[in-house]
Amino acid sequence: MMDRALALATQALRLTSPNPRVGCVIVAADGQLLGQGHTQRAGGPHAEIVALQDAAAKGHAVRGATAYVTLEPCAHQGRTGPCCDALVAAGIARVVASIQDPNPKVAGQGFARLRAAGIEVEIGPGAAESRELNIGFFNRMVRQTPWVRMKIAASLDGQTALENGTSQWITSEAARTDGHAWRARACAVLTGIGTVLEDDPRLDVRLVETPRQPQLVVVDSRLDTPLDAKLFIPGRQLFIYAAVINEAKKTALQAKGATVIHCPGRQPGTENKVDLAAMLQDLARREINEVHVEAGHKLNGSLVREGLVDEFLVYLAPKLLGAGQGMVNIGPFTALAQAVALEFRDTTLIGPDLRLLARIPGRDSF
Questions:
Q1: What is the predicted pLDDT for the residue at 109?
Q2: CA torsion sign, 110 to 280 to 306 to 299?
Q3: Per-residue pLDDT tens for 320-342?
Q4: What is the mean pLDDT of residues 295-300?
């Protein structure tokens, strides 16, 4: 039944931000499925409540039943009430949970309250899958920073554009659609002012269905974002991080709906550049779990050099471009030991292109 609960949690992949993606299945002692559901939008019911409501709507009594849930039931009053109390009130006899909630407001308290009420608690089935599904939430709770995933589309010889900047399109439509699916799961898409000025992108989700659009973050040290840029989309939160503030331009950008944040470097000589680590910490305070980076090789390089990228989502097209613009502007190194070490986590053909998922070793050890 935990597999079913995890499948339900996966259905919430693009929906629940900033809350974790959670699924719940309620089963009678004889194995009958009584109710099921997954967490809804922030402010809406959590998975356990949806499953209880589903059982009630079907006329099923849940007293004495087992609830399979992919994350510890919450024990605090947030946008909604404590789920552990709802399970107790419903008469659930046993709870099987994948993993403890890393939120300090929960962190085992939900399990403790269930046990105090006489409910049997089992922890562990599906733990790895649940943590992976909520890797950004875990990272924010444990490390107070979002999970940063850098998406790159390149040729087989590692070029993201020709020397003249032409890059549309190196990879196939299938790869672009898959990239939009990864955008859709993120809390925010991040880019740099260079990409804004060169490509005038929207950086929204268009090629797959999504119940919400990710927020947008622009690294723009001098507030060069044009007021007529396509990235201004009504209803979408836009954060612009700057190092040098022009008050008139700041006012104009905020009149367009952007939130301008002054975030200069704190070390001598960096005052005119955005402090990228501080920016990510600020995004975590704004409840951003996953950041999806789609930027040029310069900003990519800065993020990699500062050790701020957790994993790389790379689409390689079966073509050679020769001299052009690379993936990340780092190096040159003088020894192989200086290379950024990665672990391949997945390799999948997407249409004619190869999708690689590579992760910094140890980043997912929570």
A1: 92
A2: positive
A3: 999 888 899 998 899 999 999 99
A4: 94
pLDDT value of residue 163: 84
Give the residue numbers marked as catalytic: 48
Q: Are 118 and 94 in contact (CB under 8 A)?
A: no
Distance CA 221, CA 263 (A): 9
Which residue from 111, 114, 29 is spatially nearest to 64, judged by alpha carbons? 29
Predicted local distance difference test score (pLDDT) of residue 331:
84
pLDDT, average across residues 8-18: 95
Residue 157 confidence (pLDDT): 94
pLDDT at res. 269:
86
- Let me know the angle formed at the C-alpha of 33 by 28 and 37, rounded to the nearest 5 degrees: 115
Cα–Cα nearest to 140, from 109, 191, 103, 184 = 103
Flag whether pLDDT at 187 surpasses 90.
yes
At 176, the amino acid letter reads: R
Other CB atoms within a 10 A radius of the CB of residue 76 amount to 17
User: Among all chains, which residue has been given the structure tokens 């659609």?
Assistant: 177
Tell me how far the alpha carbon of residue 237 is from its chain's centroid.
16
Handedness of CA 225, 230, 231, 236 (dihedral sign): positive
Give the residue among 345, 286, 335 at the shortest CA–CA distance from 149.
345
